[in-house]
Design goal:
Helix content of chain A: 40-55%
Number of helices of chain B: 8
CATH topology of the largest domain in chain A: Rossmann fold
Bound molecules: iron/sulfur cluster
Distance between the termini of chain A: 47 Å
Oligomer: heterodimer
CATH architecture of the largest domain in chain A: 3-Layer(aba) Sandwich
Number of domains of chain B: 1
Radius of gyration of chain B: 16 Å
Number of domains of chain A: 2
Amino acid sequence: MTEKIAYYPGCTAKSYAKYMDSTARIVMKELGIELVELDRWNCCGTVYGLADDNLYSQLAPIRNMIRTLENGFDEVVTICSMCYNTLARANDLFKSDKEKADRLNAFMYKEPDYEGNVTVLHLLDLLVKRVKFQAVKEKVTNPLKGLKIAPYYGCTLLRPREISIDENIEHPSILSELIFALGGEPVEDPYMTECCGSYLTVKDKHLVADRTNKIVGSMQKRSADIIMVSCPLCQFNLDRRQKEVKALNPAFHKVPIVYFTQLMALAMGVDYKKLGFQDHYVDPVPILKKRGLIREKKKVAAKIAK
Amino acid sequence: MAFVKLTKSKKNIQFREKVIELAGNAVIKCYQCGECSGGCPEAGAMDLLPNQVMHKIQLGDESVLHANTFWICSTCLVCSTRCPKGIDIAKVMEALREIVLRSKQSYLTLDSLEEDDLKEIPQIAFVSSFKKQTQ
Ligand code: SF4
Ligand code: SF4
């Protein structure tokens, strides 16, 4: 039987990262879980407001908790790491600070009062805790054999400690475990938990290019074929900023940056043309072909032979 | 034992209080171990290292607002998770940004963005940078 769970896609999963969204839906369906997109969800605000007096920025995430209850669920799963961080932190603040919670409810007087009774999950949480990687492994029909995959966590899946999806925030292993389940070979690098530069990409893209150079360069030196991420902004920075890196450092070798759900779908036998690789700046297809993970249909081969 | 009062002027005390109001009073616990700066990925490009920022705040030195530190801080939270005194340094950086932004000065202005960037950069980056860097 298919289990249903409330799903918060977030803005970027509807545009720039639409293949992160579509592949997540495909693989979860394969694993027996239907992601039910929340009605009337709104942007979470992308970053958690840190200033003590800034309750304004907590409104957007908390409204999504209210939407979750309205849709008949008491937990909500998201795939974008930044959304996860913002939603989970705002929710924790609400649960732990009665005075702020009351003020937020009073401000949103047109909404039903929220009582802090929603749980926010990242899709990886759901995979680890409920689905289990063993079940993922059982669905693999195209094991990523021989593919050296560098996991990249970035910041928002791990910090602060209270919302971390992995117990060990300095040396997490969840993504490596997923890579093993998919039949790939994890290449762990110290830069896997280092910030990609995040929103600095707007005003100070040279700083982000510098980080991309360090992070991707280090993983490349460890012979990573591909880098696996869970955040659209990490994907954008590490992928698109390789353009600027190449200009700065001609010796740099490009490495494709993919979402974990794209690799899951590939390993589960989904046609690679449905995975959105055409949207990437650094094309993952050549290396996947080289490792024998993408095979052109026999028909085409036969035609050419004729 | 006599204590030396480092922060005497009213102006300095007011500035420190302003930061404490936004970021909590943990900032006074900093003992300059440098752990925050050691882990900060942007330390190399900062005018003042995160621990130096902490010290200036303790002294109530408003000149810290001219440093680029808190603008090029990407809120990665490495400092906050490693500080042995449990100080949320990223939150202190936010307090400094808020103090400047609330005085109607922005770090990022929309007309400075190039057309290619506007087309290419995803909205997740715009929304977050606007929240952190514009008034
Ligand atoms: S890690 Fe904490 S105690 Fe050490 S210098 Fe930084 S703020 Fe101060
Ligand atoms: S949160 Fe800011 S100051 Fe702290 S380590 Fe990250 S970039 Fe540096």
